[in-house]
Structure formats: C-alpha cells, structure tokens
Amino acid sequence: MRIVGYTDRLSVQPGETIEFMVSSEHRSYQARIVELIHGDDRPGAPGFKSREIESGIDGTYDGVYQRLRPGSYACTSRSIKLPSDFSFSVRVWPTTLDNQKRVILSLGDVDTGGAALYFQDGLLSFEIGAHRLSLPVRCQERIWYTLTARYDAKRGQLYLAADPQTLTSSPNSIQAETAVRIVSGDLSGAVTIGATKNHESGEVSGFFNGKIESPTIVSNGAVLAQWDFSRGIDGWAIEDVSGNEFHCTTFNKPTRAVTGHNWDGSETSWKHAPEQYAAIHFHDDDLGDAGWTKSLEWKLPEDLKSAVYALHVSNEDTADEDYIPFFVRPSGHGAKAKIAVLLPTFSYLAYGNERILHSHGFETDFPYPVQKEDQFIISQRLLSLYDKHSDGSGVCYSSSKRPIVNMRPKVVMQFMDKGKGSPHAFNADLYLIDWLHHSGFEFDVLTDHDLHEEGEPLLRDYNVVITATHNEYWSLEMILGAQAYLRSGGKLFNLSGNGMYWVTQLDQTTKSSVEIRRRGPGTRMWETQPGEAHLSATGALGGLWRYRGLAPQTWLGNGFAAETPGIGRPYARLPDGESEKVAFAFEGIGKDELIGDFPNLIQQYGAAGYEFDRADPAVGTPVETLIVASATGFSDDAQACCEEIMTADSQQSGSVNPNVRCDMTFVEYPNGGAVFSVGSIAWCGALSYNNYENNVSRLTRNVVTKFSRE
What is the largest CA-CA distance in the chain? Predict the structure, then answer.
C-alpha cells in the first residue's frame, strides 16, 4: 500500500479535533472526508456506498513516506558515564538465537565507543568499541541464564560468563576472558534494554527476542543502575532502584506480567507475587505506536451527525487509496436518537492486521495473500491478537496507533467462505449501517471505547442498543454497564455471533491498545505461557468470561456454540416462538417459514453461520429464556467449540452433535428491559438479499421498531 494512515483515536465527538497520520510514497495525494455506509463491492453485493462531507480539509497534500519500525525496547532519558572498573549483569530467557545480533543491554552506540551485551549465532558476546569478547559455547533457547560482563581496569582484563539455570543437571558456567585496555571514562551514553540505539539518528536495531530480568550496572564496586521490572507491572515505565534515577521508558509495548527466573508455580497472579514476575518479554515485531508525524487534522463541526466516517486519501494518477475510519458519537452526554449502534472497536483491534494463515503456517488450496492489504500486513510484519510473534509467543497487545488496514471497506477476510473471502468485522458491520439507512431509522454510533469509559450512563437515554456482527472482546466495565442498562429497562438487540467472549482490557495509560491473555479451555490460536494468564493492566484473570462467571449465556440467553468455514443454515421457529411476548418479532413471517433460507454475503447461504451461539442452562441461560427459533442440520464442516469438549472423540461435528446449532433467544429483565439475540455472525450478511425484502430484514425491522418505540 503506497498510501496508508491511521488516526490519533477511534472515537471522537463533534467539536473535537482528530489527527491523521498518513504515509504516501507519491509526491502528493488528495484527501477528503466521507461518511461510510456500505463497504462490500463484490459482485452480487449492493456495492460500495459513501457520502462526501464538506470538511474544509479537502485538498491536495505533499506526500511524505513514513516507515513502520517494529521492535520493543526500553531506554533511559539520561546518559550514564562509566569510570574505570564496571560490570553488566542481567538474567535472560532467550527465545530466538539466530544469526542476527540480539542485543540484551547496550550503553550508547557501540559503533561510536559504546558497549553492548548481545547474542549472535547463539554465542554471547560483549563488545566495547573495537574490542569484542565471545563465549566459546552456544547458549540455548528458553533457558534462564545469568549473564555477567566485567572489566577489571587494574588487570586490563575483560571477563564474560553465562550461568544457566536448570533443574535436571548441575549448572555449567560458560566463561571467557581477554586482555584489553579501555581508557577510563570513555564509556558513556544512554542505556537501552532489549536493543541498541544510535542516539544521533534515533535508529534502533538489534532487537532481542525473549525475557530480560534485573539488568544491573556496577561501577567501582557501587551499584550505578539497577532496573526492577517487578515494579509498575501495570504500566510502561521502569524504575531504577539504585537511587541514581536512571529510570527507563518502554517503547512498542513489550509484554509485561510474565514469569521470571524464580517463578515456582506457587502463585499464578503477578499481583500476589510480583517478585516472581520481575521480567519483561521483548519482541522484534512489537508495535505499540508507529510514531508517525501528523499529516493533517480536522476539527469536527458542532452539528456533525453521529455516524461512521473515514478520511479518504488517494493519488489521482494511480489507483492507490486508503480509507482511514473513525467513529463520531453524539456530542456530550445524552442520546440524539432512540437507537444506538454499538460498534466493536475492541474486536476491530483484536483482529486488526490479522495474518492467521501466514502467522500459523496454514497450508491453503487458494492463493494468499491476494489483497494489497494482506500483502502490506505481511511485508510490514504487522500483527493481531490472533497471531504469534516471530519467536512463537502469542500477541497480547493490539494498538490503534498504527495502520489497521483490514479495518477498511472493500476488504475481506481471506480464509472465510472456504478461501473465497468475505467481509468480516468492520466491513461486515457496514451491512448493518447500510440496512439502517435503507430502512429509514435514525441512529447514533457508539463504540466499545465509549462504553468501557462511561458504562451505563452512555446507554441510559437510548430505547435500544444494537450490537454488530462480532462483538467478541468485552471488558468487565462494558459488561457491567450493559447489564445495568438492561436492569433499568433498556433493550438490547444482539446481532452478534460469538459475542462477549474474551476477557479484554483497555490500556488505561495510553488508551490506545487492548490486552488479552489466551488461556484454555477456549477456542484460541495460541496459549499463554504457564503463570501468565493474568492481565498486566489490572492483574485480573484473562481467558473466557465463561470462567469468570460472566458467560454471555448468563445475561444474553445464548453464547458461543460452534463455527464453520462452510455454508450457513436457516432458522426454524420453535414453540417458544409462538409466545405472545415475541409475536412482534414474527409479524409478516409465516409460522413454518424458514428464516434466512437464501443466499448470504458472508457465507454464501443461510442466516446462521460462521460462528454461532446456542442457549444452554448448564452454562447459565436463565430459565425464563425463550428459545424462539433454531438453526440445525449443519454439515461436518461445523465443529463444536472446544471449551465444551471434555475428552477427545469424533462426536463434535454438525452431523452428529446436537449442540452444533444456532438458537435465537429472548430474555426479559425487570423494569421492561429485554435482550433479543440472533446469535450469528452471518445474520447481517442476509439483510440486503432481494433488495432488502426478505424475512431476515423483516424480523430485524420488527424488533428495531418495537424496541425503539418503548
């Protein structure tokens, strides 16, 4: 992608100013603000729809290329000067020992008289200017080592050692020494942990993969600097406990709340034993903030309506373009409409720049990557919460301060629909936005970020809140806010499949990233290391809400049941669907009429598909819940969610497992509150079939009309 960008935030209000960071390989580009309505431009879909907004920033801008610089590290803001004798010591758990220079600790720039302790080709080396000492034996990955590099000025001797920590054999220290002469006081500069930095150019290189713990610098027998990673685990600053205040700041969000060399399994929460979590896991492909220079900004008009918008940047001489989305919520507190659409920005970040097929090495029988967006993601080493780092560890943090090029209109998730690719997340959610426009409903747009920060007060003035196709990642603040809204009489129309599933937390320091810890049992693409299931942001247990007593079944009626790459299925009405309580939903729909028994833009056919939910009293579905319709008869492409598989067997596919079904549910709350839940990601992909005249569209219109008037 030769033109690409991001915003300084995802949610903004009228009257506020939003900033855009744009990189362009062209000498110039054109920019304009558009309202996004529909994003599926494939044959058979309604096509791309947008509306140009007069903004005052429309025009031509000089193109500036801005690089992405992945790799996490920590750095002091002050220089350290080493007199005569000194030593570096640190504990490490390396995860990548290859032919690249993997710097653990550096002072200044080694090319201009600095020093660096690093691995290369598995060999530990210490380099000071033109002097270099390496150990004769390779170290191993995923073993804790205590590393020491010491210079004895009196003897003119440089000493290097690596002491492994193992349980199964006696430790065999690897040592080396050599005679060198270093002029006293020549060593000075800022300290970088996990990389080396040229402080003149600002370039950082030599990124380390693995855990680092307790870096310490001693000079003339006194501790000059000692960084304690067990302090401030919930933030991004590192404290120097020597008293000399050489504090560090981390960059690009290395993983915190990870086990250290002395973790003994007696505690699994860093809150309870922070001294056993005194390590940080650095990665060469972390990216917490691209750090691009602001290209342009827009102060939103005070009367701008709540909607989904984008900055469209393009080059008039080529087909290069990008849509950089943002979401405008109503100004101040209080609803402007009776309907709110809650767009899942946490889930957009979770899936942001996913490259599951590439990251996990899946073999496909279809070409990949085909889209320019996927090619960009892979070439730039971008990651989502579904991917693994280059060292095989899972990605815990995902930030909005970088281009998220699959959060765009006209983009598909390539592995969906058996490799044909179809819209997912943001682009699929525009199906709902388009349908609301087509149906003439006035609505406000809210985001996960808004609900997390404000809770129930954000929702209380709306008659109905509608979720989109895949509201999967929710925080505790969001759940409690939504539940309080329902108890006070609010209505929730849940159009999501596999919703409210993963424990998720917004980084309260930066407000720009979300965090998860994938711990089983659960349907997941990677697993946390032992002892690392608690979130660094709060110390709360990660994993599924199901294991925190807040399964979606307990308050929505249904929750994740199964997923399929194959085609979906229609719903058949059940006896509960004849209840007077839900008669409004089925007005104009025949009793025996299958719902969604026609083509679908997400999975070819059927309104229940991809990932879908069912009711289950054993998981917490309230006894009063009405199961009004159900989709069954899925093929063996559909597999039950693995958190419900107690032992390995061959009874988990759609043709043999009765739990592989999609239940449509209705739950009443006190004071008139209610949840109507369809439980299917594919539902919104059926809304526009037959020019929006179909029973999925009719049922959706019936529920929105009823709920919005009460």
Answer: 95
CB 497, CB 611: distance < 8 Å: yes
Q: Which CATH class is domain 3-68+293-327?
A: mainly beta
Residue 264 CB-half CA count within 13 A: 5
Tokens describing residue 45:
């879909």
CA Rg, the chain, in Å? Answer: 28
Least confidently predicted of 107-116, 179-188, 249-258, 429-438: 179-188
Tokens representing 297? 């900004």
Number of H helices, E strands in the chain: 9, 45
| CATH no., domain 73-282 | 2.60.120.200
Is the alpha carbon torsion for 71, 74, 78, 83 positive or negative? negative
The answer to whether the beta carbons of residues 682 and 597 sit under 8 Å apart is no
How does 647-683 read in b/e, with b if 16+ C-beta sit within 10 Å? eeeeebbbeebeebbbbbbbbebeeebbbbbbbbbbb
Name the pairing type of β-strands 502-503 and 473-474.
Answer: parallel
pLDDT digit string (tens) for 592-629? 999 999 999 999 999 999 999 999 999 999 999 999 99
Neighbours of 69 (CB within 10 A): 16
Distance from C-alpha of 633 to C-alpha of 635, rounded to nearest angstrom: 6
Mean pLDDT of the chain: 94
User: Do 3-68+293-327 and 73-282 agree at the fold level?
Assistant: no
**Residues in Cβ contact with 685 at an 8 Å cutoff, skipping those fewer than 6 apart:** 422, 423, 428, 431, 469, 600, 601, 602, 603, 607, 609
pLDDT for 58 beyond 90: yes
Residue range 571-577: average pLDDT?
Answer: 98
**Which sign does the torsion angle of CA 620, 623, 626, 631 carry?**
positive
Q: Can you tell me the mean pLDDT for 312-334?
A: 92
Q: For the chain, what are the domain ranges?
A: 3-68+293-327, 73-282, 332-590+613-634+664-709
